[in-house]
Design goal:
Largest sheet: 6 strands, antiparallel, barrel
Low-confidence stretches: none
CATH architecture: Beta Barrel
Mean pLDDT: 90
Number of strands: 6
Strand order of the largest sheet: 1-2-3-6-5-4
CATH class: Mainly Beta
Strand content: over 45%
Order of helices and strands: EEEEEEH
Structural class: alpha+beta
CATH superfamily: predicted glycosyltransferase like domains
Amino acid sequence: MEKRDKRYYTRYRTKLEGKVALEKGFTFPVEVLDISAEGARLRTDSQIPLFQGDIIDIVIKWKSSIKAKGEIRWVKEDRPYIEFGIIFIEMDMANREALSSLISEYALSALSDLYTR
């Protein structure tokens, strides 16, 4: 049986850097592997215990920093890395607009790649 992606928004592969802060007080760097309007897939080599349901604050480094609060939806350990998916649960309008601009830029880039092959 084919596994279907249940996501509503398109995900775009990225190579962005970010920083995550857990409510428990830990802060660590992350790589943003893909992103959508709804959430992101992140990777870190920090060996910090992460659990589904943890609430995080994230800053994504782009033209301007994008700040959001997220909830960890899944965690996968693949030593020496930990990958985890988040859903954005809180983001002010300025950060939402910056995220929309980032996604638009990646979407346009993906389209131009299709047409220039």
